[in-house]
Amino acid sequence: MTRLVEVPAQFDDRSFDQFAASYALATADGERLLFDAHAAEWASPYGLVGLLAAGAAAGRRAGGGGGAGGGGAERPLLTVPASAEVVSYWARAGFFREAADLFEVHGKVPKTKPATESEVLLPVTPVRAAEDVHVVVSTIQQRASAILAKELGLDPKATMGFAMALSEACQNIVEHAGSGGWVAVQAYNWRRKLARRVVVIAVADAGVGFRHSLEPSQAKRFGDRWGDAAALEAALIQGVSRFRDPGRGQGLAGIRRYLARWEGKVAIRSGTARIAIVPRWDDDVPLKDGLPAFPGSQVLLIIPEQGSTKA
Amino acid sequence: MIQHIRVHEVLQQSVAGFYADLVTRPTGRAVRESIERALSSGTIAVMDFTGVGCLDYSCADEIVAKLVREKVLVLLLRGTTDGHRDAIEPVLLGHGLAAVCERPDGTLDMIGAREPAAALLEELVAQQVAARTPGGAIALTAA
After folding, report:
1. Tens digit of pLDDT per residue, chain B (143 long)?
2. Are B40 and B3 in contact (CB under 8 A)?
3. Is the torsion defined by CA of A268, A274, A279, A281 positive or negative?
4. Strands B130-132, B138-140: parallel, antiparallel or unpaired by DSSP?
5. Region of residue B90 (phi > 0: left; psi between -120 and 50: alpha; otherwise: beta)
6. Closest-CA distance of chain B to residue A290, Å
């Protein structure tokens, strides 16, 4: 028997919990999963890398490798969006190149290379090792500099900080996830929230998550409060790391500093919790607990076009 | 004696692949270990960042902070960009450490924790590696 996991029509960080709930329900009895993206009309980078993480986790459950690039004996199924336009965009964003290793894909997928258009600053890219982070940082500096300066109005010097933030976000996968993951960076008009352009970095893995990573060093300190929310709070707010080295834990702190400077947003979902540093233009909540369980960690960074933002 | 480190060259020699960016812990560790092999302990070292692209916090910690903490007497940073200093400063502050930065005009500035930074400049002047300029700034006398 196959269990259905519905991919939301508008698939981004806002609808991710709906997707996670569907995933949690479908995985309850160990049956093969069918990810149904038939009705998908749009997916943010967060949605795309999150869907890959779900595919990796589902493949691992079924006895496959499940990491970035891992296959499986009985891979989960994926029905592609019905809209040719949407399928084309997902292909140009590099999604299907990665999905082919994780899912048994059903539906017509155009044979296209990941885009070099200005919107896709970095197509969906696997991150498994430090070398991958080098490639990501090098690529983004070549492609993002002009867009960050011209379209978002960021000081050209901010490009370096952007690459730093991206590097640190990707390194979280390499150092903490215990499995591979994916990163994607796109620029687009965010009419709904801001009526201006934004650059979005999305990083996702299906690894062990923050709670598991920090548990040996932090669980005792938090006592009864220990859980996914406490682990996220320790990592993002307190700069705690699982390593004893006193220099560790600076990556997320650096990301926070960079985003604070450019009125950006950071949100991290792991397990059953989600934490966010919320800028004044957004109405997200700082901490949510008791969410539907989802494997690994998903990181979202948003940098808005500079200028007056809605309060 | 002042020892010189060209970070970009060390990066090319230490890591497979032609990278210009100092990112990730493993890269930082490889570069630092190469530098440590070439450096005598307790020395004054000039670390030249010319040609280095992005420097992230992990590498700033792994290279700059650990060399300052464990290896050198004074670390003088040359050829740094604003982006490099944005990564180095909070890392040094986090450890209560400091280094000396050479401005493009040759005068010296401090980066990191205030107290140890002032002591570093005094050390350079005491060793006659640096001297006060007529304008009141401090600049290297050699190197």
Report:
1. 789 999 999 999 988 777 889 999 999 999 999 999 999 888 899 999 999 999 999 999 999 999 999 988 999 999 999 999 999 999 999 899 999 999 988 899 999 998 888 888 888 888 888 898 888 889 888 65
2. yes
3. positive
4. antiparallel
5. alpha
6. 32
Cα–Cα nearest to A184, from A108, A284, A96 = A96
Amino acid at B118: A
Does A141 sit within 8 Å of B53, measured CB to CB? Answer: yes
Interface probe for B, chosen from A127, A128, A135, A137 (most Cβ of B below 10 Å), is: A137
The model carries a pTM of 0.89
CB A207 within 8 A of CB A230: no
Q: For the beta carbon of residue A25, count every other beta carbon within 10 angstroms.
A: 13
For the stretch A50-62, pLDDT in tens is 999 999 999 987 7
Q: Are A262 and A307 in contact (CB under 8 A)?
A: no
CB neighbour list of residue A283: distance below 8 Å, 6 or more residues apart: none
C-alpha A245/C-alpha A228 separation (Å) is 23
Partners of A248 on chain B (C-beta within 8 Å) are 61
Q: Is B23 an interface residue toward A (CB < 8 Å)?
A: yes
B89 interfacial to chain A (CB closer than 8 Å) = no
Tokens 């519905």 locate to A6
Chain A residues in contact with B26 by the CB 8 A cut-off are: 130
Contact A164 B90 (CB under 8 A): no
Cβ–Cβ below 8 Å for A137 and B21: yes
Q: Which two tokens stand for residue B86?
A: 């944005």
Nearest CB among A160, A171, A247 relative to B54 is that of: A160
Sign of the alpha-carbon torsion through B14, B15, B18, B22: negative
Provide, as residue numbers in chain A, all residues whose Cβ is less than 8 Å from the Cβ of B83: 157, 159-161, 164
- Contact between chains at B21 and A251 (C-beta distance less than 8 A): no
Contact A247 B27 (CB under 8 A): no
Helix ranges (H only) for chain A are 16-26, 45-61, 84-92, 95-102, 130-150, 158-172, 209-222, 228-236, 250-261
